[in-house]
Amino acid sequence: MNDTLSKIEKRTAYTLLLPAVFLVFAIVLFPIFANIWISFKEVQLKDIRIPEPRAKKIVKSIPEDKTKLKIVYRLRNSSLIEDINNIKFSDNLPSNIEPVELDSRCEFKSKKIKCDFGNWEAKYRQNFEIIIQNINNDVIDKNTIKSQKPKLSGDADNILLTTKFTLKNFKQVFNENEFLDLLLTTFYFTFFGTVGAIIFGMFAAQLVNQKFYGRTFMRSILLFPYVGPVVALAYTWTLLLDPNSGTLNALLVNFGIIDKPINLLGQKYMTLNLLGFDIKLRLALTTVIMFEIWRYFPLAFLFILARLQAVPKDLYEAAEVDGAGPLRKFINITLPQITAILSILFMIRFIWNFNKFEDIFLLTGGASGTRTLPINVYQQGFAVSNIGMGSAVSIVIVMLLIIFMIIYFKLIGKRANEI
Amino acid sequence: MRYKPLVIYLFISSIFFTLVGSIWKIMATLQGLKLTEINFNINFLLALLLSLSLVFIGNRINHLFKILVLPLIFTFIYIAINESAPIWYNVGILLISLFFTNRVKNYNLNYLKEDFVSEKIVFDFLSLFAIVFFAFIILFPFYLMFVTSFKLQAALLYNPLDLSIDFTKNISDQFKSYLVIFKTYDFGRYILTSSIVSIGTVIITLIFAIPAAYAVARLNFFGKTFLSTSILIIYMFPAIVLVIPLYTVFSQLGLRNSIEGLLIVYTATTLPVAIYMLQGYFKSIPKEIEDAGLMDGQNWFGIIIKIIIPLSLPAIASVALYVFMIAWNEFLFSLMFLDNPKSFTLSRAINHLTGDAETPRQYLMAGSVVVTLPILMIFVYFEKYLVSGLTAGSVKG
After folding, report:
1. Which fold does the domain A170-418 belong to in CATH?
2. What residues form DSSP beta bridges with A73?
3. B6-31: pLDDT as tens digits
4. Would the CB atoms of B238 and A357 count as touching at under 8 Å?
5. Chain B, 77-106: which have a CB under 8 Å from a chain A CB?
6. CA B333 to CA B262: how far, in whole Å?
7. What superfamily in CATH does domain B180-393 come from?
8. Interface test with A, best of B26, B117, B139, B248 (most A CBs within 10 A)
9. In whole angstroms, what is the distance from residue A273 CA to residue A284 CA?
10. Could you count the other beta carbons within 10 Å of the beta carbon of residue B314?
C-alpha cells in the first residue's frame, strides 16, 4: 500500500518537473555541450544555412508555334561549399498539356514531370529546359504554367552534423598574442568592478541604515541604476561622456579643470602625473568599470542593508556603555557582522561580472582596450563571422567559470543559504 | 577647552558647505546660467565664518532666530562677493544655508566637549555628504536622459551645458522627438512587442515553474537533491556562452526574428531562478493545510490550484515582477536573434537607432525614456515585491 503511494508520488513529481526540466535542458544545457562540438569545427557564419537545391522557373513563348511553350528552370545549389546528393525534382502541368520530349533523367507521369538530378557539387548552376505542347493544339495560357512552382528535395550534409573536426580554433585562441592581454583585461574589469560595487554598496547601506528625512525615497532611488534597462542607461552615459558635446567634458572645460575635452570612452591610455610618477591609466577600461560600479552597487547595497538590519541593536548599546566611538563600533561590530555576506557577494558578483557582455558592448563595443572574453565571443562569432572560434572562446569561459564555481562552493558551500 | 574637535568641526563643516555650494553652482550652470568660476577659496572662507559664528553663538539665542538670521546674513555677503546671478540662484544659496544651519544647530562649545565628538562630527558630515553624493550620481543620468529627449537639435549643439527644459515652446515642438520616434521609427509597434514578450515570458515561466517548484519542495523522488543543487549551478551560466549554439540552431529551425524564439529563450533562462525562489516559499507553507486538501480527495492539480497558489501570492508576485524586469530589459538575445525591424523589441530598436550615426541624440534619448519609464514606474509602485524578488534572484545580474 505504502509502496504504491510512493510510486504515485514519484510519478507525479516527474510529471510536474518534466516540462521545466526539458525546456532548461534544451535551451541552457544543450548549448553548453553544443559549444564543445562546434568549437572543434571550422564553421563560418554563412555556412550555417543548410544547403538546398533551388530552381527558378521562367516561361518563354515560342513565336512560330502558339501551342508550344518553353520552360527554363534555372537550377542551382544554394551553398558555396557543400554538395547536395540525391536531388529529386517535380513540377505539375495542367491537364491536356505534356512535354514534347524529355531528358533521360526525367519521366512524365500523371500530369507530373519528375526528374532525378543526382548530385550537385557546391556552386552548381545550370539551366534545364523543356518544351511543352497542348495535345488538343490549343493556345497554352502562360500564366497557369507560371503559377505552378517546382518542388525540389535533396540530401545535404548539415555542416554542424558532420564528423570533420579540427583543433584549429583552440590553437588560434591560445596562440593569439592578445590572449594574455584579453585575460588580463577581463580580470582587471571583473576585479575592480566587483570590489568597487561592494565598497559603494557598503557605504550606501551604512547610510540608509541610519534614520534621516527622506530615507525611504533614498532607498528606492538607490536601486534605479540596476532596475533601468541597460540599453537606455549605457546610451545616456555615452551622451554624458561624449568628448564633443557631452555634458561632463563641457562642464570640466567651462570651470577650467581641464584644457580640452577627454574622450573617456575612446582613448586607451591616459598618462597621469601623481607625485612625480607617471602612471599610465587604461582610461576607457576605467570608465567602463565606473559604469559597471554605478550599475551594480545597488545589488551589493540591497544585500548588505538586509544584513545590517539584522544586527542586534543591543550590541551597539553595550559598546556605547563600554565607551566605544562610531569608528570603533563600525570596525568591531558592523564589519565582523557583514564579512560573511561581503565574501559571498564578492564571489557571486565576481562570477557575474566576469561574464558581463552588454555593458561593455554598448559603451565601447570592445574598442580602446576594453575587449574582454565575452566581448571576444561576439566579435569572433559575429564580427569576424567565425562561429567555431566564438564557440572555442565560450568553452574557455565555461572552463574558467567551472573553476570559479568549485572555489565558490569549496569556500562558501552551504553557508550560501544563510544570507 | 579642547581645540581638536573644534578644528575638525570647522574644517569638515566648511568643506561640506563649500562642496554643496559648488554642486548647486554646477547645477545652475546646467540650467543655462553662465558661471565660469567656482571661487572655492572665497566660499570656503565664508563657510568657515558661518560655521564659526554658529558654534560660538550656540545656545545663547533662540534656535529659530539663529536658523533664520545667520543664513540671511551669509547669503547677502555671498551675493556681494560672487558673480552676479539671478534671484532664483541666490534663493537656492539661502535654502542650502538654511538646511545647513538647521543641521548643525545643536553644535555648541559644550557639545564639542563630549566624548568621541570629533568622530561623531566626521560621521555626521560624511553621511550628509553621502546623501548628496548618491542622490546626485544616481539621478543625474536619468535627468540628462529625460531633458535631452525634450531638446531640439539646434539647442543641443548650441550649448551642451544647458540642461533646462524650455517651457515656452509649443506642445508639438516640446514633444517633437516623441512624435518622430512613434511616427517615423514605429516605436508603438516595439512597445507592443516588448510588452507581449515580457508578459508572455512571465506567464509561461509561472506555468512551468509552479508545478516544478511544488515537486521540488514537497514530493520525494529519485534525484531530488541533485536537481535542487543543479538549479543554482545552471543559473550561474551566463547568456553569452549559450548564444552561438542557440543562434545556429535557431537559424536552421527558422526561429530567428520570431517572438516565439525569444519567448522560449527567455522562459528557459529565467526558469531556474523562478523555481529556486518559489520552492523556498512553498516549503514555508505548513504541510497540514495540504494534508487537509488530500483528505478532501484533491489530486496534485487541485492542491496547487486551490491551496498552494492562493497561499503564495506574494512570492508569485515577486517572481513575476522579477521575470518581467529581466525580460523587459534583456538585450543580448534580442540583439542576436532579431535583425528584421518588424520583430524588434524596444531595447533592440534603440540599439538599431544608433546604427545610423546620423540619428539625432534626442530621438535616442526619447526612446530611452520610453523603455525606462515603464519599468521604473512598476518598480516604484511594486517596490516591496520587486525588492524581495531582487534579493532572492540577484545572485544574477
Report:
1. MetI-like fold (1.10.3720)
2. A57, A128
3. 888 888 888 888 888 888 888 888 87
4. yes
5. none
6. 7
7. MetI-like (1.10.3720.10)
8. B248
9. 18
10. 12
